[in-house]
Records
---
Amino acid sequence: MTLNIEQFLIVGALLFCLGLAVALSKRNAIGVLMGVEIMLNAVNLTLITFSRFGESARPITGPTFVVFVITVAAAEAAVALALAVSVYRNRDTVDVDRLNFLKS
Amino acid sequence: MEGFGVVLSFWVLAAVTLVSAGGVMVSRNLFHAVLFLITTFVGIAGFFVLLSADFIAMAQVIIYVGAIAVLVLFAILLTPHAGRDNGETRMLLPALLLSTCLGAVFIFVIVDADWRTISESPSVGVRELGSALLGTWALPFEIASVLLTAALVGAIMLVRSPEEEAEDALV
Amino acid sequence: MTLLVFLASKNWYDIRDLSNISRVILEGLDRFLPSGIVYVVAVLLGFVASFLIFVLPSQLIVGVYGERKIIGRMQSRLGPNRVGPKGLLQPIADAIKLMQKEALTPKFADKAVMWVAPIIFVAPCVLLFAVIPFGPNMIIADIPVALLYFLAVSSIPVLAAFMAGWSANNKYSLYGAMRIVAMTISYEVPLVMALMGVVLFTGTLSLQEMVLWQKSNDIWVVFLQPLAFAIYFICVSAELNRTPTDIAEAESEIVAGYLTEYSGMKWGLFYGMDIGYAIAASAFAATVFLGGWSFFGLDKYIPPWAIFIAKTHLFYFLFIWTRGTLPRLRLDQLMTFAWKFMLPVALINLVVVATERMLWQELTDGKLTQGYLYLFAIVNIAMAVAIVYAWARMLGYSPKDETPMRPRLFNDARGYVPVVSEKGGR
């Protein structure tokens, strides 16, 4: 009836792999972004797990890192969605299979 | 961490989070996928509370659920003729294969490693986080604010229509 | 924080501290039940005590009946007066009417999402009352980040409203949903900044500690930071979609906004939680700004939960008052107001408050005595008026353009006719 570090880390790893599968296989660009957000959340979970269970001289480093990851994720989501909307306005699609304009 | 309540809440949260992430993958409607994404975020916030990082849990709900999910919903609304069916590319099978192999490697390492853990949580509260962000990590903090400003300006610039740019041009 | 000496005893019949009753019940049950289940009972008891006993009657009596009666009197008409003696059974009649209506679902709407949206709308309102202190020991969950919890939980019903509007497969609902989301996320930012100014002074995010700070320093935050109170009031009334900012369900504009396809008790849940969230926001404001359950020493004799309930309803009366007085603003006026006025004013407020906090630290060598707070209160009241006036002038608002013409009537053979003078009649 106890929880170890391994259980949290396995949840984080499974979440990361699910996010990776979503990011690599979705056709809609916004779906890809959703996969990236799941991966970042899994990383946050792993960081906080280590901050709680690992021995460290300065245990505040874990939550600080997570604050920065959340900030960067928010900025990246904003720019990625702005890109998706802009691409939609120019090409009328956000299908990543059809965005192959660099192909000769 | 022991106690019946703690273990029960861990398993419930793990089930909710993983099933919701699976729902993002398999749901046939893009809007339902976003709702499953929101449930995933809330599940992760629950995990943070379980791991005694309550400030990060609240920040997660405010930023991810309150702002990023809304942003994703707006982007879906602004792309009306895009594919709302949440389909997959041809790379579905390689993606699944890769994520399965990666998951297997992760789980092997996690189970096999010898973790030196401490049993009681270190006291990290909002006060220590504040002094860390403005003390030791002041430079990344300032750079993060510059990054957010750049992202804000960039996002607005990317979605301006040519008429709006023409009327704001300097020349 | 300084310890407080509270004269309420530990007896179960001392109603000044209702936690005695719950403690006696829970300890009694702990002997019968297996270990651990008593926590579930504690949660249920907390839910019953805070939501069912406090919020639901407040919602029905004050929110439905009181609001309609007071708005009616403000608009020179009687409110509801048919249903019971002086119309007091009106909320019950409303509830019965809604329960016996058919809850229609359109054919092409998204049934699962439409069914889930009212649930996600109701749940955060109940959750909000878990962190609000009704008395010195009467708080269900005294978490150290209670203020952030409030902000986090109050950003969830926005998503529920969006889900409701989107799932109805109706373009009016979608318009309402988009407007409500745009407005809410715009007004969240000045709200957070105003609250951060308060946190700078009280030094804690926990609501019970804030009440204890106000009690030990003998000052209410509304006197210390009136600009933060005004910003909180405007932003929270925008988040709750109350007039003058209720473009989300503007009945004359977009049918009923995101609630168009809802009928029966589903709509009743949305409407009830509209009032419920207003009461939650009032309770939060009463805790943070108006001093919570403390009243300059009187809370040793009067039950503190009665003081708290009175303050909540006082703040709710401010909501009713604005609703009866002001007309509805347009969406672009609201957005301009949020981004061009509220956000800079909140930023200036935060800078001023931070400077004062640093001055407080320096002038008292870290001991943070109470006398300077009164000085800061006077300075802050003056600066609130000055900042609002100066920023409004800087944005180009000048009161001369906005004064409506006074009608001048001239007694003619046709009766009273308006005088139209060439200069404009001001």
Note: The radius of gyration of chain B is 21 Å.
---
Amino acid sequence: MLASALEGFMPLLSWSGLLLLLLGTLMGMLFGILPGLGGPQVLALLIPVTYGLSPHMATIILIGAMGAVPFSGSITAILINTPGTGASAATTFDGFPLSRQGKAGLALGASATASALGAIFGAAVLALLIPVGRQVIMAFSYPEFFMLAIMGLSVIALVSQGSPWKSLISGGFGLMLSTIGSDPITGLSRFTFGNFYLWDGIKPVPALIGMFAIAESIDLFIKKESIAGQHKILISGVWDGIRSVFQNFGVFLRGSIIGTVIGIIPGVGGVVANFLAYAQTIQTAKDKSGFGKGDIRGVIAAEAANNAKDGGALVPTVVFGIPGSLEMAVLLGALILHGLEPGPDLLLDRLDIIFTLIFTLVLANILVSVIGLVSARQLARLTKIPSAYVAPVIFCLSLIGAYSMNNLFGDVLVTLCFGIFGYFVKRLGYSKIALVIALLLGKIAQESFHQTLVSMGIKGFFVRPISLCLFILILVFLTLPYLKTFSPRQAKGLLK
Amino acid sequence: MRISARSIFSFFLIVVVAIMVFLSFDYNDKARFFPLLFGGVTIILIGLQLLSDCFSGFEKRLAFVGRKSAFSKLIKTGGETQNPSEAEQSSGVPFVRVFRLFLWLVALTAALYFFNYVAVSVVFIFLLIALEAKAGWLRALFVALSVGIFIFALFGIILRVNFQV
């Protein structure tokens, strides 16, 4: 394992590795501070750039970008009350009041330190779970992978924002889309209508570029407004902010733990981590009077959780191949593109890649914190760029990027179709994450289901303890949101 | 009966899934198992959603369809996928503007098929910013040319992309 860790760290010591880390971090910062854009969009746009790169280098630029997004989102949240990403929304509650009091430096210093340390905490948890993950993965076979794939979707229905029913519909539709192409067992082509391009099914990367980069940009362009208002940007007292994290270390630690745990649960994401950590800090604080008016503890908890969740979200992604968040879903697609199949193969055969991923996540967070503090004022000015200028650029980059993957025009069409479809999915309150994860997990579910039937029969799903436990959990997750509807009191009412 | 964007979208989803389920009967047992299973469940889910979207009577009876998750109550702003405030904000946008933008995107895709992608990008960005976003011509030209140079450097020189369709 130590050898793999060293092998994973070496690419980061090369000039090209450092350059790609810097490039990824800068791209992540840019997308992080622009509201409406975030991790999934920057990853989707960077995928075409990684085609010619080795798997290590591709991982560095992608994780560099992903790691830079959360803190960058908090810069504009603190300075101009506009969270760059939804995951920084709770940071505005106390970050912006601090800015208005002329203490933006204090908030930014605390945010940068909590972000960097939170990310290190999440990455450390991921590193510690790898040896356990290897043991767990050995106990998993086809039925467990089938149950895990279905459980991934049912958890999303339970915890997603908005309507769980619509999340289930999105998941079901995504699963249907995953059946397009050759059947993994019989090889029969399904729903291809004689089109050769569809034989391989809907490729995840063009679909992801469409769903995230194009769909979000349509929304940005339609809104047609300047992102920031006319707020003044004042920065001082950064060192006090850095010190405040260590003075409130308990707040930081609780935020990091919440972020990591939320990250591990597939589909929950940074928004929930950010809010839960903030809410928990208020609940446990003795003096609650300062919250919402500029209490530094609010910034520390929210940002620690927001950054720690990335390490947590990588756990199900690399151990089981089940994406823990939107970013992870796109990252999963990118890794597959480079011949790295997250899950058992990656964990058992390419441990060095996982360590590259961990080290890059840590370094990107440290780098973005330093760059962010130095250039916060200039970065915040970027939000004054009207979104009408940003969106057309993303349209072109997305469509050309989709083509450059395989030199297939079908990829461009898929990107366009998913972009338009994704816009309606978002506008009408359906779940993009459930759809995308279902699209990615559909093939795994089909393969493992048939393999279970062939090797163990239908009883294979229920006689193995882990598989049975997962099945029970699925039932619980699917029924939980609706149990309250049929509470005993209401049942009595119905009987009357 | 209410006809809204929501009900039309639900109808679209149910039609797509129904067609797929119908077609899957032509396949052998193994190949059709999953489309039938997923499709059957999804049709039921969308069907109830459609009834809830179209008829106010069903909306009350099928209250569980519109139930929000526990996290929606916690989170009032921000969000990755289903931020209600965002959805409400977007729903106020006139559909004509959205449809016009879709046409621009279709035109961009068609132009990429027939012409050089660097030139297409420059022209598309310039026209979209100048005509649709109604920004200044000079600004639009500056953005278009800058991005054109970036696209040429990235895709033309570094990645050697060549649209040969």
Note: Residues 115-165 of chain B form one domain.
